[in-house]
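Re: beginner question about structure tokens

> Can someone show what the tokenized structure looks like for a real chain? I only ever see the sequence side.

Sure, here's an example I had lying around. Input first:
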Amino acid sequence: MKELTCIVCPVGCHLMAEDEDHVTGNRCPRGLAYAKAELTNPKRMVTSTVRTNHPMFPRLSVKTDKPISKALVFEALDQLNDVMITKDIHIGDIVISHILETDVDIIATKDIVY
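And the corresponding structure tokens:
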């Protein structure tokens, strides 16, 4: 039996899951879908920073454009350690396309103009 707290909405239902087909405690269908996803392939949004050579902004904040598999989070962070921004970048620009051969892009969350 696994205990989960649903994070899909502000209610925060306390879920009990024996397996993906036996979930209790959800007040709506979204809680059931959340529990199934958490049990089979949990995903998370990743926020981090990458280096720049800009004299005033040594780091650029970035995030994934959609959740990435939880199993890949630390590998994705390792790949971000190797990135250096050397040109103008704007909010929403892709910093890394299809990180770790997934359909997830790393995008800028700040403007940096040289």
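Each token stands for a local structural state, so reading them left to right follows the chain. The chain is about 20% helix and 30% strand.
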